[in-house]
Every structure is written in C-alpha cells, then in structure tokens.
Amino acid sequence: MKKRIMAIMAVMFVGCSIYYVSNAMATAGIKLAEETSLGETDVKALAEKARCGDGQACLRLADCYRKGIGVKKSLMGTVVMSLRASLYGATKSGDEYFASLPEDDEYRICYNLLEKYGTSQEDCSSAIKRLEASEDPDVIATCGVSLARLGDAEKGMALVEKAEKRGSTLAIMLKYADKDSLTDSDKSLLEEKAEALPSLYNLLGQAYLTADKDGKTDYKKAASYYMKAEEQGMLDMIGARWLLNCHEKGMDIQLTEEDVKRLKAFVSKSKASDD
Model confidence over 188-202: pLDDT tens digits? Predict the structure, then answer.
C-alpha cells in the first residue's frame, strides 16, 4: 500500500519513485518553507515561473498548496511542488522541504507517515493519533491509508472514502488510478474537480489515452488536459514525454515553440537528476 501511494504521488511529477529526484543538486541561498514570504501571492504568476524552471517559485507554490493561499489546500500539490523545487535546485530533495516545516505541521506528519514510517508500527500509530482530529481531507486520506497498512483495512478504507467525498486529491487518485479505464461519468467528475485540483489533469490525460469500451482513444483531449496540468506547473513526466513524442511525429496537438522549449527543458532536467 505504501509503495502504491508514493508511486501515485511521485508519478504526478516524474512518473516513477519519490526518490527519483532526492539527489538533485542544491544551490546557494536556499529558502525553505517558513522563510518564504507569501504576502499577497499571485499564484498565476508563480505557476508561470515554476513551469519555466524557477525553483524558488516552486517552493512558494508548495507553501501556497500547504496553506491554501490562492489555491485549494492540497497535500498532493505541496508534494509535487516540493519535488519540482528540488529538480530545479532550490532544495536537495522533497525531504528537505518537509523537514523545514514545524514539527506539528499536519502535512509534515503526513509526509513522514507516507514515506518514512513504513517499517515502524509505533511511529505510524503515534502519527495517526496526532492527526485524528484533523478535518483536512488529505490528512484524513493519509490516516486511512496508514491504518490500512497497519492491518485495519475496514477503518482505513472508510476514512479514504470519507476523504474522497470531501475532495481529497490523494483519495481521488487512489480511487481512479487503478481502474483499467474510466467511464464518461468518471471523466466528467474528474473534469469538474480538476479546476480546483490541477494535478488531476494528468489523470485525465492518461484516461483519454486509454481505450474506452468501444476501443477508442482521444489524443487531442489527452493533449489538452496534459497542457492544462503544465500551465499549473503540475505536468508529470509521462505527460511531458508523450507530448514531445507527439510533436516530433507531427501530430496535431497545437504546441507552440515556447511549449516545446519548456517541455524539453523539463525532461532534460529530470534525466540529468536521474543520472
């Protein structure tokens, strides 16, 4: 269960393991979570900088998603942007971002639950107890996943379902990512939620590349949803590589020269960090 959760969270950014970017090079003058000044944050402007490779903008967006400033509060959004910040050299890893948060920060505790406490039942139980009063949907989902991992599947899945109904991106991903294909109603629901939870655009892109009940795919819709994710700095590596492949084949997906330049830089940077 832990590997599945972390794979889902990491695929939103790199398409493999959360450790994929953990060794990205750091730069001087790192500003971590509590050192960034959000003020009257222009999230759209930050997203534009983030998609162009500005690591500090990624960190500020991680804070925005953690605090719900200008965007819907989201653990997934916080994780994705912290990983992207590490890719662009603003931190050494996603671990460093979360380690910079106050010890009682809910998302720090959630991150540790999902990534670090897989082998210690005592640590998991203690962390879950600290979070049990939270009303945050992603926190509830994290507790549910952790309880299921500890052996209480019934209570754990009940919490995940509760979190999904309250709009948890993590719970929604868990519900739909394992389906062989999504129904029209599934897609409509995700389309409705993705405006506030942009990481879901990646899931929609994948959904339209998967054959439906009639054996059909829709690559143009897939491209449009992947680009919606890219506009928010949320495009995953699978989507980026697919878009570039389509462009190289001359498919009609309407990428501008600037789009291609950003996508190539993103893919190239990820390959470099992997090496």
Answer: 999 999 999 999 999
